[in-house]
Amino acid sequence: MRKNTKQRSMVYEELKSRYDHPTPEELYYAIKPKYPKISIATIYRNLRILAEEGKVIEIKSDKNVLRYDAKTEPHYHFKCTNCSAVLDLDIAYNKELDEELNKKGYKVNYHSIIFYGLCPNCAK
Amino acid sequence: MRKNTKQRSMVYEELKSRYDHPTPEELYYAIKPKYPKISIATIYRNLRILAEEGKVIEIKSDKNVLRYDAKTEPHYHFKCTNCSAVLDLDIAYNKELDEELNKKGYKVNYHSIIFYGLCPNCAK
DNA sequence: GTAAGTGCAAACCTTTTGCAAACAA
DNA sequence: TTGTTTGCAAAAGGTTTGCACTTAC
């Protein structure tokens, strides 16, 4: 049975309050001032739990770091190769792609799309 | 000026000979028997060089590991959540998506799509 | 009271780096 | 010859784990 802890809800609330898809380390440094005794291990453990519960999503946009997103409706991302920002896109999720593969014998859960290039700011 | 080394061409040839999108470590253990004194650092360095040269592609399908692909024409991937295989898909690359974003001020290089679910084998 | 969660430090795993020796051009 | 690459070992990142203590229920 899962318990509600202050630490877990702080991780979740922090994530819901921002749209920059932070890494575990970034979350740690954001929460630390509000709750100085929190440990980075707690951040990791809770991110894993929240992801298992489907409350947050993992974004594999970077080479060696995972990023997290509390917006769980299927959506796509843009990774700027200049400023490193990861942005949400408002392109509609394409269910037909999943169905196309299901017809071929796959059983698709979801798909992720990540665009790489320059964001509008850096493209100027 | 770049030199041609036996090690670099072995990494590239190994990658071209297989379709399972190996990790650096998997490449290391594949090449080691043929060239026992090769170092894992050399694998990493050459993968980076080959990626810079556009001869191989990095696939961010896993949490903590990069996978590599010597098939450089844009294409999409399927990651099986059961057997962990990463498969090439023959869905056409959707250039319109890139153009759609370009119209909105982005400057898209390319996009990657990764599907998650069960591959035809595991779906049975 | 008790099982779940925490903090800390150590361990782990993957990737990068410094450096002297080896090698391609 | 000389600038690049290699192998090795050490270091650096990022993530996980063991354990005693704390907390939610």
Question: Can you give a write-up of this model?
Answer:
Chains A, B: GO terms for molecular function: DNA-binding transcription factor activity; transcription cis-regulatory region binding; zinc ion binding. Chains A, B: Belongs to the Fur family. Chains A, B: InterPro entries: FUR, Fur_C, WH-like_DNA-bd_sf, WH_DNA-bd_sf. Chains A, B: Keywords: DNA-binding, Iron, Metal-binding, Repressor, Transcription, Transcription regulation, Zinc. Two copies of one chain form a homodimer. With 124 residues, chain A is α+β, with helices and mostly antiparallel strands. The first copy, chain A, has two domains: 6-69, Orthogonal Bundle (Arc Repressor Mutant, subunit A), CATH 1.10.10.10; 77-123, Dna Ligase, domain 1 (2-Layer Sandwich). Chain A contains five helices and five strands; from the N terminus they run H-H-H-E-E-E-E-H-E-H. Chain A has a three-stranded mixed beta sheet with strand order 4-3-5. In chain A, helix 1 (6-17) packs across helix 3 and helix 2 (24-31) crosses helix 3 (40-52). The model of chain A has no long low-confidence stretch (mean pLDDT 97). Chains A and B meet through helix 4, strand 5 and helix 5 of A and helix 4, strand 5 and helix 5 of B. Strand 5 of chain A pairs antiparallel with strand 5 (107-118) of chain B. Chain A binds a DNA duplex (25 and 25 nucleotides) through helix 1 and helix 3.
